[in-house]
Amino acid sequence: MRSDSLTVVSDERGDGSTPRQGGVPSGRRGGYRRWRDWLLPRSVLGITSMLLAFSIGASLSGGVLYSYYEYRLTNTEKKVDNYIAGFDQRFRTASDTIDAEKQNAQASVQKELEPLRQFQAEGGTLASLVQKVGKSIWFVQTLDDTGAPSVGSAFVVASDSGHSVLVTSYSVVKAATHAPGPDIFLVKGDDRIKAHLDNWVEESDLAVVTIDRGGLPKLDWVPQNEQPRVGERAFVGSGLGAGGASVTQGFVSDVSQNALQHDAAIGAPFQGGPMLNSNGQVTGVASMTYAPYGFAPSGVHYAVPIRSTCDKLLRCPAGNNSATASNAR
User: Fold this and answer.
1) Among 49, 211, 238, 297, which residue has the fewest nearby CB atoms (within 10 Å)?
2) Residues 134 and 244 sit within 8 Å (Cβ to Cβ)
3) Is-contact 266 302, C-beta < 8 A?
4) pLDDT score at 49
């Protein structure tokens, strides 16, 4: 007989497992285990295994990180060691480079200053020239056409036992070319000698005077084949100076048959004085009025070439670097 009442079925089996519903275990869906059943162990052994795996992974990660740290640290230490090891060499190289640049800069500066240094160093040359030619250059004193003092210089070109011949500037002794004319005196220190005007060439600003004193040292002339050149140093002597003479200096700026243009500073005491080269040889006669090109030499100085004195003023034996005591009249 069928009963319409429900029958209560026990929820446990004899083995303690969960009863199945429809033949499928209650812990599964669609026949598969849930994801946490795979990831989360349910036993002590599983948990221990998981922790061990995590520990091993962490140890490996730490080892890798430490190895990378050691690698970077080693590379850094090597770079530092290399830098320190090469620092002394780089320092020496840098110091040598700086010293070389310093020397090059000094050499460049010295090269630029060479003309100025040479110019300043001529103090020794000037003193040497004064000592060499000073006894042959005399200071000239006379009067001009108005009775005012007229001064200049004259230098010995010839001398014998009785008298000496000196060349000077016509402009200095111009008044004495007329009779009666003022006296002309040659002065050196306390020595004062009356001179005689023997000859002159007005257009060349040249004159010759003689004194009754012999044995005076004469100045040699530059050889004919060694005439001054443009850019060459020029010196002009005067018979006025504390040491018995003085010398000023400049450069030759132009050379022609009739004139030597130069920039040596000259004033009244230098006109008629010798223009000299570095060896103390006479190259010309200084003038403040000589105008070889027909215009006043304002701001420009022209010296008369010393060989021009042989044209109408002096007798110059061929091949000699000076004139004879017998002057032309």
Assistant:
1) 49
2) yes
3) no
4) 74
Question: What gap in Å lies between CA 210 and CA 198, rounded to an integer?
Answer: 7
Encode pLDDT of 158-206 as tens digits: 999 999 999 999 999 999 999 899 999 999 988 999 999 999 999 999 9
How far the first Cα of the chain sits from its last, in Å, is: 192
Where does residue 186 rank: exposed (0-12), middle (13-18), buried (19+ CB within 10 A)?
buried
Number of Cβ within a 10 Å radius of residue 303: 27
- Looking at the domain that runs over 134-312, which CATH code has it been given? 2.40.10.120
pTM value? 0.62
> Are 323 and 158 within 8 A, CB to CB?
yes
Q: Which 3 state secondary structure label does DSSP give 300?
A: coil
pLDDT, position 9: 46
Dihedral of CA 115/117/123/129: which sign?
Answer: negative
Query: Which parts of the chain sit beneath pLDDT 70?
Result: 1-42, 86, 113-123, 317-329
Is 179 in contact with 296 (CB distance < 8 Å)?
A: no
Sorted by where each begins, the domain ranges of the chain are 134-312
